[in-house]
Amino acid sequence: MYDPAPAHARGLFVTATDTEVGKTFLAGAILAALVARGEHAVPYKPVVTGVDEPQPDLPTDPEVLAAAAGGTLDPLEVTAYRFGPAVSPHLAAEEHGERIEAAALIRRARELGEGADALIVEGAGGLLVPLNDTLVMRDLMVMLGLPVVIAARPGLGTINHVLLTLESARSAGLDVRGVVLTPWPEHPTEMQRSNRDTIAMLGEVEVTTLARAEHATPRALAAVGRSLPLDAWLPPRG
């Protein structure tokens, strides 16, 4: 079913339980924290949708990632496919008269990862988001061969969503290094603390929390990203 083709020897694939749950924030925090400690970390957002519907005064996902990596890449370079409508990637591609191809996604990952210390990939939506009529995001994750970190909400409903995501990832043989609940409040409720502990117990996974940064600037992202267990997720630089 899969044709594994590792894109880079060292890196992470940041996925999530759903859309709008903090993937870009988490990926940006990882990138900024790595750059702050002297690593050449490169971002990759395989597919971006909704470029025709920007939010006022808010940077796009590629802009956040490119800035977090030190600003050496143009945001347009961070992606393989960009589409206007804010819909699922497969539908956005169809409406644009295109088809998202696995070979193009993997090729761009290899191009970006060449010479980098780490390749940090941010998916779109969750694991089973369709990219075309036969390819879902999980397939691409397996092909890229990177360990996985899952972003999730800290509030009500997150236990079920995270456990389903873990089950889906592990059934495909993906190496899940951890779950990150974000934005984690300064004063978490009893439910939020229970969610964290329950996911760790039932999912048999390390659960980390990530505070909200006041702004999505590289400095702010690096400050909160320092709390992440990067050395546990990533092997030492060889």
Please, could you describe this protein's structure?
- This protein has helices spanning 23-36, 61-68, 89-95, 102-113, 137-144, 158-171, 190-203, 218-225, 230-233, and strands spanning 11-16, 41-48, 79-82, 118-122, 148-152, 176-184, 207-211.
- By secondary structure, it is an alpha/beta fold.
- It is globular and about 50 Å long.
- The protein has a seven-stranded parallel sheet, with helices on both faces.
- The mean pLDDT is 93.
- It is built from nine helices and seven strands; from the N terminus they run βαβαβααβαβαβαβαα.
- It has a single domain (11-228), classed as 3-Layer(aba) Sandwich (Rossmann fold), CATH 3.40.50.
What layout of secondary structure does this protein have?
Layout (H helix, E strand, L loop, with lengths): L10 E6 L6 H14 L4 E8 L12 H8 L10 E4 L6 H7 L6 H12 L4 E5 L14 H8 L3 E5 L5 H14 L4 E9 L5 H14 L3 E5 L6 H8 L4 H4 L5
Parallel strand pairs: 1-4, 1-5, 2-3, 2-4, 5-6, 6-7
Helix pairs in contact: 1-2, 1-8, 6-7
